[in-house]
User: Fold this.
Amino acid sequence: MSDTETLGVVGGGQLGRMLAEAAAPLGVEVVVLDPTPECPASPVARDQIVGDFDDEAGVRELAARADHLTYEIELADPDLLEAVGEEYGVPVNPDPETLRTIQDKLVQKRALQDAGIPVPEFQQVDDREDLIAALDEFGSVMLKAREGGYDGRGNVPVEDESDVDEALAEIEAATDGDGTRAMAEEFVAFEREVSVIGVKGEDEIRTFPLGENVHREEILRETVVPARTAEAVAERARGVAEAVLDLLSGRGVYGIELFETPDGEILVNEIAPRPHNSGHYTIEGALTSQFEQHARAVTGRPLGATDLRSPTVSANLLGNGEERRPAEWSGDDAILRHPGASLHWYGKHEVYPLRKMGHLTVVGDSEALRASEERTGCAREHRSDAEDETERLLREARELRDEVTFQ
Amino acid sequence: MSDTETLGVVGGGQLGRMLAEAAAPLGVEVVVLDPTPECPASPVARDQIVGDFDDEAGVRELAARADHLTYEIELADPDLLEAVGEEYGVPVNPDPETLRTIQDKLVQKRALQDAGIPVPEFQQVDDREDLIAALDEFGSVMLKAREGGYDGRGNVPVEDESDVDEALAEIEAATDGDGTRAMAEEFVAFEREVSVIGVKGEDEIRTFPLGENVHREEILRETVVPARTAEAVAERARGVAEAVLDLLSGRGVYGIELFETPDGEILVNEIAPRPHNSGHYTIEGALTSQFEQHARAVTGRPLGATDLRSPTVSANLLGNGEERRPAEWSGDDAILRHPGASLHWYGKHEVYPLRKMGHLTVVGDSEALRASEERTGCAREHRSDAEDETERLLREARELRDEVTFQ
Assistant:
């Protein structure tokens, strides 16, 4: 192996930043393509090419410098990546075909359903009539723009006919007036939202432990690992995630969002062909982080162990207030002082409401576990100790998160 | 706090590289000053200024861009840093006065001795006569160049008068012909070499657990944590390290190398005013890494917890062969496949014998600990389990290290 390889990444947001942080120790330098000068990844990347995600000249420049290509945002252009990758002889992972499938939520859901993977019931919605028909069949539905939505944008709950016009208008606004192009999904009254971070290598797949995701206003707030659910449910989720990884082609990390139903069934909500917000806990919580796994997988290196090092909770640091403004902030002292807490700041220069500005992670303390062993003299009480620890970590993470404020 | 601060670092070797990797999540960007273009820190730093460590224009450019200044190499110039720091109103940590004291091993040892900190006996050696006198007093001695030595260079064992001429010649060669300027230290027949990584903040000091260091050819090969020694010795070492931190002025991480004597006493060997090779294990092994601690301390942030997460062993990946050549290598697959092993590649473009090219770390598995609890049903056997684990980790680290070869 040469002393250094270069990984070209379409997108230079926080995922690209954490990918660059994780790739360096492997001897992999990162170059990113991102339209925002001084994007979050730029201080830790070898270089940033300033250009849109689908800018042909930018993608070519990236390919010319890279030994491997990947993307950290679904807005990447699969056709362009495929063509440029072939032209320059640089492998693109995950497969552009996978990105194409995932970009269109309807195509994604159909592919999953065709493979026998459990998903909520859904119907294509091209107009008002389709939506009314879906309401008739499912009762209330979640109306989703087929393309371009994220962090809840482009998802509109529809309870009955009186919501229909407003919902359709919202979807059309979210899709830049590109017609209706939507899907309606049965409204799942889930017990909890969970996710599996999976990784696909050359000839193996691995999954991280099941995480439990707490959303509010459709934005992820906290991830709790292990998820506070039955072992059988975690096993079922792992099986579903493995089926998803078998189905999709291309090396890399996948974030697989799942619903756990009240009777313990698992349904696939959505898949991201990249490291996922609900996998940030792996940086401190697992033997290998999702970012290192992604760097390993897309550069053709062996995958790492996915074992949990201790119970772990992560919490997003989201923008508050009313408007877009410079990101002046306070409250990191409490995080830095807290034993077992880690701060991840994304280096975004502006803040606006609900923007993901950073996250914090709190890990359980295995020394504490040992101390508790010495105290009790016996190990059989650990399981409940571990459960107590998860609750404690979640409480701590929320308290620390609430200390952070933006001016 | 503003969205981003900049830390200016004199030196951009592997310590600067790992410092930049650790600083980014805190919202701290790193700019380094280093004479080698594409130095190890450059791909993960915001920028590299290419210039010698004592280049006045380079240090000024660094200060002009930085909110805080530090150094990762003792070859930094304390007078220049002090003057430029004052001129630009940028704090320099650790204190340039501390760097001045540490750069001269004789001055360093005297300062420690004057503070009542236990050190080996020593004498100033300015000429042949001084060295003979030291031999008469101590029996065999270690002759050390007062300045500029590192990784064993500038340290020459002298057993009797027949070694004297060669030893003096070697010291003069190591000091670029700057006269003899040396010190002779009683030869310590230590039981083991150990070290404490300490960190000094605004108004607190903290120490990491005692590490045990295995050297060969005077170069660190492995660090084993916790050190395989008595609890009372570890406590004594911590006390000595705290006295050292009290003595030195300036915020930052200090690597404190110690000898454990056969009767369990602790003597200070040498101090580095920066993160230290024997503290690399903290990246995976401790709740906060030494690099994050250094970034926190020198930027005025609160210090982090120093608790060990699990028994941990690190091993250096050193250059082999005969000559300087491009760093083509193999053997990382075994490291990447090993559960609990992490690779840290420094991105050096050339390899030569004994050059530090990277390191690997193997952590104990707290899940394994739990599994062993469930197996035994009781926790009282853990202490010996933990000791077994340390031996196992050391064996694994050596096996993985031996897989790495350079073409």
The longest helix of chain B spans residues 382-403.
